[in-house]
Amino acid sequence: MAPRTARVHDYEAELARLQKLADLLDSRWRIPGTSIPIGLDGIASIVPVIGDSATGVVAAYLVAQAARLGVPRSILLRMAGNVGLDWAVGSIPVLGTLFDIGFKANRRNMRLLREHLEREHGSTARPTLRRV
């Protein structure tokens, strides 16, 4: 059996990896000449439905990983709602692109995940990852 420190390391690495993915989707770059963040989700939404569907699959992966970390169903439903709203409104030509740039569903979902884990486990206790 692996020592506890290995599990803590895996947990921290998993959260860092998920945060990096959420940032890539929502806020990796800045729109030139502004301080407005944009990620692949906003860029992909230029192609209605197809672009949003592709980034929606990645966003659903983030929700699945939250389930793997033991997030309760109520929070998973909120996270899925963020992804669904992002996909539905984001699929509307022009308006959807503007919505995607402002809404940031993946960053919202990472905040929900972190808040839950901090509430449940405090800042020192870390849950172990589980297979779903």
Automatic annotation (TrEMBL):
What InterPro entries does the record point to? DUF4112
The record, for Pfam families, names:
DUF4112
Q: What is this protein called?
A: DUF4112 domain-containing protein
